[in-house]
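Feature request, filed as a ticket because there's no other form

It would be nice if the structure record came with a short human-readable summary line next to the tokens. Right now we just get the raw output. Example of a typical job, pasted below so the devs can see what we mean:
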Amino acid sequence: MVDMNNAAVPAVSVADRSRMVELVDLATLAWVVDLEVDGGDRVLGGFVLLFEPGSRYDSPNYGWFVERYEQFLYVDRVVIAAEARDRGLGSQLYEAVIEEATQRGSQRVTAEVNLEPPNPGSSRFHRRMGFEAVGTLSPVAGYTVEMLSRPTD
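Raw output as currently delivered:
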């Protein structure tokens, strides 16, 4: 997970092994997706970390949603392996996240997409999945994110 995460920087923040362990421990849910490759072997195809309100997670992005919403399921990071892209895995994973949020009684799924540095592919993907902009945040110089929300119903 660490190598896959760090290969996706700057779309997600860098994390060493101890930080990734901490994130998984703090997360409400940590899902991994395995992928069958040639010969029937299975490899890590992707992962997503999800948080509900009440976590001790120190992310300013997560904190922005905590300040504004009582109920939500926050997508902290979703990473799909390079060899698993363009197979619909991201859409399937987000559909599962939306279903999980609905079952938990969350009113919305939240996430953010980088505006600076820009991540237009992720922005287009989230719009296709029904997310809308609800604000922006610039927690550090040179880094701005668009805060997104999608109702569960």
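Something like this underneath would help us a lot:
Helices lie at 2-7, 17-26, 60-68, 89-103, 120-128.
The chain has a mean pLDDT of 93.
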